[in-house]
Amino acid sequence: MNKKAENAALRVALYIRVSGEEQKIKGLSLEAQQERLEAYARERGWVIVGVFVDAAKTARKNIHKRTEFLRMMDLVKRDGVDLLLFCRLDRWFRSVADYYKVMEVLEAHACGWKTIDDGEGYDTTTASGRLYINLRLSIAQNEADLDGERIAVVFDSKINHGTVVSGSCPFWLRVNDQKRFEVIPEKAAILQDAFNHFEATISQRGTVKYIRETYGVNWCDATFRRMLRDKLAMGVYDKNGRYNENFCEAVISPAQFERVQKLLGNNAKSTPTGRVFLFTSLLVCEECRHKLVGAFTKGYYYYRCNQYFQRGRCSHNKFIREDVVEKWLFDHLGEELEKYRLAWEVQEEKRRKAAASVDRAAVRRKLSRLKDLYVNDLIDIEEYKRDYDKYNAMLEEKLEPAADQRPDFAAIENLLSQDFKTIYDGLEREEKRTLWRSVISEIRMDNDQHVTGISFL
User: What is the reported pTM?
Assistant: First the structure.
């Protein structure tokens, strides 16, 4: 750098960063930093090749999120700057690890750096100089960590008391004078209608279109998807490790919210062409257990295993026609339901017997401990008799553990008992998809296009 200074004016880049309004109190506002840096460079005859300003960016933020800093580093990599100039070391970094990552780039491109407000120079060429820089950065990093901990405590308190921590609001909420969320009734009604429409059609794009045509509210797909997943709709705050189940008024019931999350998890959606695949996320490859993906070719709807076609990780190389799956379901749904019911009841009986055995073993252990307590004079005879009678009575009872949730076999049987095929043929494709998804959770198919198993909801 000294050799460059002797032959030509140094090319310098000015880097300016401020994390918030408190910096103005310390004289480190954006304007103040830029004025001092420009004056410092002009006094020495240096050429300013760029001014890079990161406003409202903390030095602890990932450097990949500091856009102006990255632009400056691109200039360094193009060998377009000889010296980086900034006010103080903590304007640049408060992380020792990030400092050394950037130093590798600067050294590779013969670029130095300098501060103007720290009062003394930093020497990176000696062990003592590097130790001093490490100490200064470690102190700055510790200060930032302490600030973060204090802010975290404040945020924890706010969330626990139902107070908002930012000015951004979901569509159906606003911030009142007490800094709490309150529901906007007319917008909450739109959100409720959107949840109902999505649950009925399982189409995000179709719901967005419906809301736009019905209410004149123009959501994009990503915005609506965020609202479907936002737990604030249930009144629950659950972000960044903070949780409050009564943070604000609920506009969507927990039961409906969970149903919608399950539908979103199944990833049922229309293609950009508007085509609706009846069995998307229901059909599963028997060989690799990944979900089959829909395709439309020559007027037919097909499903295929992308683990074979795109990744070569599966042997399932056949296309399965949608109408073939439909026909099989019409022919075999009743017998598959009966097989599934019998298997479920056998498994449930085994589970109940195992649970009862565990419960009885637990009571016997309590009786054994009770005897030990009495023998060791830790309880008197009255306590012993009372608890002994209680535990013996429990053993004599027929313990019935809580059963797993039983699939709604009756609803499916009722559907099949009607003129199912006639009703089905009169439905739109989205309605057909909704019908299948209301009774079936999974259809497994092998490479020979055979259904190997069905699971019901």
Answer: 0.40
Judged by average pLDDT, the poorest of 183-197, 372-386, 403-417 is: 403-417
More confident residue, 268 or 326: 326
Q: Tell me what the mean pLDDT of segment 221-225 comes to.
A: 86
As a three-state string, the secondary structure of the chain is CHHHHHHCCCEEEEEEEECCCHHHHCCCCHHHHHHHHHHHHHHCCCEEEEEEEEECCCCCCCHHHCHHHHHHHHHHHCCCCCEEEECCHHHHCCCHHHHHHHHHHHHHCCCEEEECCCCCCCCCCCHHHHHHHHHHHHHHHHHHHHHHHHHHHHHHHHHHCCCCCCCCCCCCEEECCCCCEEECHHHHHHHHHHHHHHHHHCCHHHHHHHHHHHHCCCCCHHHHHHHHHCHHHHCCEEECCEEECCCCCCCCCHHHHHHHHHHHHCCCCCCCCCCCCCCCCCEEECCCCCECEEEEECCEEEEECHHHHCCCCCCCCCCEEHHHHHHHHHHHHHHHHHHHHHHHHHHHHHHHHHHHHHHHHHHHHHHHHHHHHHHCCCCCHHHHHHHHHHHHHHHHCCCCCCCCCCCCHHHHHHHHHCCHHHHHHCCCHHHHHHHHHHHEEEEEECCCCCEEEEEEC
Mean pLDDT of 343-363: 70
Residue 338 has pLDDT above 70, yes or no: yes
The torsion region of residue 312 among left (phi > 0), alpha (psi -120 to 50) and beta comes to left
> Which domains are assigned to the chain?
2-145 (3.40.50.1390), 183-265 (3.90.1750.20)
Looking at residue 37, its amino acid is L
Pick 357 or 394 by higher pLDDT.
394
The number of angstroms, rounded, from the C-alpha of 261 to the middle of its chain's C-alpha atoms is: 12
- Mind telling me the catalytic residues? 19
